[in-house]
Amino acid sequence: YIEVNEQFARVVGLKAEEIIGRSDFEIWQKDFAEHYRTSDLEIMRTGQRIYMEETQIDGKGREYWVETIKTPIHNLEGEVVGTVGITREISDRKKAESEREALINELEAKNAELEQFTYTVSHDLKSPLVTITGFLAYLEQDARKGDFARLQQDVCRIQQAVDKMQSLLR
């Protein structure tokens, strides 16, 4: 490290002047240091900036999300001679994203249920209407023939269909 800010020093738990001149392996646990050393070497090899989002664990065991942007440092000849990194905590954003995804999934499920319900209601309401329409035609035929006994049966069937529809609507 050739320069660090006060926030980084607080995260590390050392004073800035105690960090400068040290390597990742002198400050962090081996796995963590290797992870960051690998990304530094990749930046130096390719000369390309990288962006990472990942979880970390602080000294108290709290897991939290960070985003890290690492950029190559070039000398006057344009050669990559190091990296600079900026890391910030994004736990609140990740929590909000997770909650949003859960709400979207819940909304999609409710929409599917609503579509199924709408289909069922539509089908169930059509049945009495088909009955009413059919018996209206019979009603007309029976009226022309003067068959009042059948006419009464047709009216009764129409009333049953109306009653069924009212029941469904309730």
Can you tag this structure with a few keywords?
170 residues, alpha+beta, rod-shaped, 18% strand
Furnish the topology, listing elements before pairings:
Elements: H1 6-12, H2 16-19, H3 24-27, H4 30-46, E1 50-57, E2 63-74, E3 80-89, H5 91-145, H6 148-169
Antiparallel strand pairs: 1-2, 2-3
Helix pairs in contact: 5-6
Report on the structure:
The protein is of the alpha+beta class. It has six helices and three strands, in the order ααααβββαα. Strands 1-2-3 form a three-stranded antiparallel sheet, with helices on both faces. Helix 5 packs antiparallel against helix 6.
Order of helices and strands: HHHHEEEHH
Structural class by SSE content: alpha+beta
Q: What is the number of E strands?
A: 3
Helix content: 55-70%
> How many helical stretches?
6
- What multimeric state do the chains show? single chain
Distance between the termini: 74 Å
Adjacency order of strands in the biggest sheet = 1-2-3
Q: In this structure, how is the largest beta sheet organized?
A: 3 strands, antiparallel
Uncertain runs are none
Question: How much strand?
Answer: 15-25%
Mean pLDDT: 90
Radius of gyration, in angstroms, nearest whole number: 37 Å
Tell me the overall shape.
Answer: rod-shaped
